[in-house]
């Protein structure tokens, strides 16, 4: 039996008092790669924010990496996020420090103490995204694609049970998007579970996988036709 890392049952997602998505039912199992698609404003970001604790789940059931979303307390959110890797569209790297120091900062913030182990972990995740020689650089010295690779490395630091990638290729040109997608595919093949929100349909055709669509306040699975 594969382990369920995310399950929503009859969940409604609100932004303030506005209903964004209703009666959401879905399950993501360990090792899955799942797309979340939909037009701008269809609720993808609100959906993601609910999963990492930025928005409260007030209606329905929701479980994510051993946390119960409706009863999630403010003080538990940092612990939830340690089990998640989150990749944003705009990288969110700290501009005033090197790549190595960006990653060390996250390890310190999540309770790592042993300096040698921290250094090894940083080297190991940078190697996974093919950035092992760039650790001494500052974010502004890297291209957009390289910055996103670092953001993916950062998401891998605490060996997350689920990676939430919110439009990870949204700011990148098509060729760079494919390079970043290849990195995500590789880490998925190594056993990482990924839920990726995107509006880049070209990627779905090139890398077909289970696809959920936000439309008309609902989330439903789309059956993809295989490319010839």
Layout of helices and strands:
Layout: E1 4-15, E2 18-29, E3 33-37, H1 44-51, E4 59-64, E5 67-68, H2 77-82, E6 84-87, H3 99-109, H4 115-128, H5 144-156, E7 162-166, H6 174-189, E8 194-197, H7 201-206, E9 210-215, E10 218-222
Helix pairs in contact: 3-4, 4-5, 5-6
Verbal overview:
The structure is a single chain. The protein has a single domain (4-199, 206-222), classed as Rossmann fold. The protein has 228 residues and is an alpha/beta fold. The longest helix has 16 residues, at 174-189. Helices cover 32% and strands 27% of the residues. The chain has helices spanning 44-51, 77-82, 99-109, 115-128, 144-156, 174-189, 201-206, and strands spanning 4-15, 18-29, 33-37, 59-64, 67-68, 84-87, 162-166, 194-197, 210-215, 218-222. It is built from 7 helices and 10 strands. The two termini are 32 Å apart. A 6-stranded mixed sheet has the order 6-7-8-3-9-10, sandwiched between helices. A 4-stranded antiparallel sheet has the order 2-1-4-5, with helices on one face.
How many individual domains? 1
CATH homologous superfamily annotation:
P-loop containing nucleotide triphosphate hydrolases
Tally of DSSP β-strands? 10
CATH topology: Rossmann fold
Helix content: 25-40%
- Mind describing the biggest β-sheet? 6 strands, mixed
Mean pLDDT level: 92
Order of helices and strands: EEEHEEHEHHHEHEHEE
**At the first level of CATH, what is the class?**
Alpha Beta
* Net shape: globular
The end-to-end span amounts to 32 Å
Our Rg estimate from Cα atoms comes to 17 Å
Strand order of the largest sheet: 6-7-8-3-9-10
| Uncertain regions spanning at least 5 consecutive residues | none
Structural class: alpha/beta
The total count of helices amounts to 7
Second-tier CATH architecture: 3-Layer(aba) Sandwich
């Amino acid at each position: 039996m594969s382990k369920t890392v995310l399950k929503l049952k009859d969940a409604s997602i609100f932004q303030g008092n506005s209903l964004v998505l209703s009666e959401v039912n879905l399950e993501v199992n360990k090792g899955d790669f799942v797309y979340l698609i939909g037009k701008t404003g269809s609720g993808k970001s609100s959906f993601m924010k609910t999963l990492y604790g930025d928005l409260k789940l007030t209606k329905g059931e929701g479980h994510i990496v051993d946390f119960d979303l409706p009863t999630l307390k403010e003080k538990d959110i940092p612990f939830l996020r340690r089990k998640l890797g989150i990749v944003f569209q705009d990288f969110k790297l700290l501009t005033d420090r090197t790549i190595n120091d960006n990653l060390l900062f996250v390890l310190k913030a999540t309770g790592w103490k042993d300096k040698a182990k921290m250094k090894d972990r940083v080297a190991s995740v940078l190697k996974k995204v093919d950035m092992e020689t760039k650790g001494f650089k500052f974010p502004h010295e890297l291209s957009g694609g390289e910055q996103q690779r670092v953001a993916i490395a950062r998401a891998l630091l605490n060996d997350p049970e689920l990676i939430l990638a919110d439009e990870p290729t949204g700011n990148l040109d098509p060729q760079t998007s494919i390079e970043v997608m290849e990195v995500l595919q590789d880490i998925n093949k190594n056993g990482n579970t990924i839920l990726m929100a995107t509006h880049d349909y070209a990627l779905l055709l090139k890398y077909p996988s289970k696809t959920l669509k936000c439309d008309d306040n609902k989330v439903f699975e789309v059956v993809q036709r295989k490319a010839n």
